Every structure is written in structure tokens, then in C-alpha cells.
Amino acid sequence: MIDQRTIPLTENFGVEVQGVQLGQIKAGAEFDQLRSMFEEHSALLFRAQDIDDEQHLALGKLFGPIEDRLADERKPDEAYVVPRVSNVLKDGTLSGEMDLHTLHLKANMMWHADSTFMPNPALTNILVSRVTTSHGGATEFASTRAAWSQMPKALKVKIEGRGIWHKYSHSRARISPELAALPMFHKWPDQHWNAVWKNPSNGREALYIASHAFKIDGYNEAESQVILDELMAFCTQPQFVYRHEWSVGDVLIWDQRAVLHRATPWPQNEPRTLTSICVSTTDRDGLSLMRHQSDAN
Ligand code: OGA
Ligand code: MN
Questions:
Q1: Which atom of ligand 1 lies closest to the CA of 138?
Q2: What is the mean pLDDT of the chain?
Q3: What is the distance between the alpha carbons of residues 167 and 188, in angstroms, rounded to a whole number?
Q4: Residue of the nearest CA to atom 7 in ligand 1?
Q5: Residues 6+ apart with CB under 8 A from 169
Q6: Confidence class of residue 293 from pLDDT cuts 50, 70 and 90?
């Protein structure tokens, strides 16, 4: 078993876990302990981790299937590379202020859960800090589990029992129509998820929304946006938020079913790099129960 210590990150969710090197975690009792902390606390912070891409990938695989958004773009002889969330381009230069790549990074500054627009949305994103800026560039996390449990009934009833539609191009369109038009944002059909995700391991419910959400059943798109904004504002109040200022070697692992996140601005002329592995949800994570009943397949 891991001989770890945990320190709460906020009153409502998240712990820092000390005494663990994630690159060494083994399947079996050790990982089971990590996984149960993940189910319980929704966000786990590990500092000063010595973890390379291979170990990062191995850790991801313990959680479930690795998400691979580029599978269809890669040539047969090209290997999977651990994705980077970075303003550093392939040639080593920094992405310019109005580049589409920069706009894509800006879209990460809207509250979201990852991959709600994919047929198997993310269970977790394991972010490892590789290069940090002199200031700025924190990532913020908001517990939609804590928020849901404290949400007034008058707000809950607006979406309880309804399905919500998600698409990637929606969040990008809020930043730039040119960005939203790129083929990479139109790979998957619109997804239709229940408004609430019930964690099958502990029964805890969390509101499931994201910047990618564009339509709630029973409302038109304009009405939906007003309600989604209202829900988002409730969930992202300070008492439900943890803000993480990165140091190189920090690792954050969070439950996308119960926590929203967003990037915050940093100086454009400084490099910022995180490696990111998303793991997809499976039925074991409650996925099949999330498919809204009106989906007749
Ligand atoms: C992501 C993401 C936030 C950040 O990797 O999915 O939203 O702070 N990152 O870079
Ligand atoms: Mn994200």
C-alpha cells in the first residue's frame, strides 16, 4: 500500500497527496488506493514528481483507455505521442497572439470538462507541469459535485432529468468563428448527456456541463445558454474553486465527471507547457447511464 499523507486543497474537494511517486505506482492494491482517493476527493495534487512520458502514459492506462483525438490524423507509421498543452510550436517558436493555436488555448480559459463532445468523454486528465511562466498560467478547478449538493432547488429543477447537447465547435465559436470552422472541431456528432452524473462507486451526483454545452432539452439555444451561464456561475463561486499555481513537476489528476476546470492567462511571450493524458470513461465509470434516454440507440 502507499504510505501517503493527504492535505485538503479546499473545504469542499481536492487533496494534496504526499509521499507518492506516481511513476512507480503499480496496478493492484497501490493503484486501487489511488483510485479510491480519486473517487472520494475528485482532485489529487502531487508535487515534485519525477515522471517521464512513458510513466505518465502507464499511469493513465491504470485509469482506463487512453484518449487519442488524433488517431484519425496520424499516418500508419507515426507513433502516439503524449499530448502537450503548450504555446511552444513544433519549431520551438511561441504561438503568436492571434494564431489559431493561441485562440484554441484561449478557449481553455472557459470553464469546461474535457471531451464532453466525444462519444466517450474524459474520466480524467492527468496534467504534468513541464515549463512554467514567471507569473500567471494557473489552472482553476470547480467542484460540480459540491455545487450540486448545495444548489437551490429553484435552479436544479431547470435541468433535472433533462439531456444536454455538447459539441466541440460550440466552445470554439465563442472565441472565433474561424477557429470553430476547423475540421478538428467537427470530428464527432453532437453528444447528448444527462445533466447529472452519478458516480457508480459512491452514488454522489455532480452537475455535468461544460463550455461545449449548447442546448438543453425543452429550451431553445438562447434559453439554454442563459440557464447554462446561470449554472456555471453558481458552480464556480469561490467556495467551490481550487486554483493551482504550477511548479515544474506538479501533477494534477481530476475527475472530469465532477470537476470543471479552466486555464488562466499568462504572459504571451513566455513558454508554458504541460503534458496531458486524458483517459476516456467506460460503463464502469457510469457512462452508459449518462446517455440520455431519448437517444434511441
Ligand atoms: C486541458 C486544459 C488547462 C490549462 O489540458 O484540458 O484545459 O491550464 N488545460 O492549460
Ligand atoms: Mn481541458
A1: 8
A2: 96
A3: 8
A4: 108
A5: 180, 181, 185, 186
A6: confident
Grid cell digits, residue 289: 447511464
Given the candidates 3.30.70.60, 3.40.50.10090, 3.60.130.10, 3.10.20.340, the CATH classification of the domain at 5-296 is 3.60.130.10
SS3 of residue 127 by DSSP: strand
215 within 8 A of 179, measured Cβ to Cβ: no
Nearest 5°: the CA angle 89, 261, 257 is 120
Which band of pLDDT confidence, cut at 50, 70 and 90, is reported for residue 1? low
Task: Give residue 176 CA to ligand 1 midpoint distance, Å.
Answer: 18
Q: What does DSSP say about strands 15-18 and 163-166: parallel, antiparallel, or unpaired? A: unpaired
In the chain, pLDDT over 70 holds for what percent of residues?
98
- Of 18, 41, 22, the closest CA to residue 30 belongs to 22
Which residue has a Cα nearest atom 3 of ligand 1? 263
Secondary element (H or E) of residue 8? strand 5-8
Cα(285) to centroid(ligand 1), Å: 22
Q: Which of 175, 274, 275 to mutate to test the pocket of ligand 1 (most atoms within 8 A of CB)?
A: 274
Ligand 1: distance of its center to the CA of 122 in Å?
13
Q: Which residues line ligand 1 (CB under 6 A)?
A: 85, 108, 114, 125, 127, 139, 261, 263, 274, 276
- Structural domain spans, the chain: 5-296
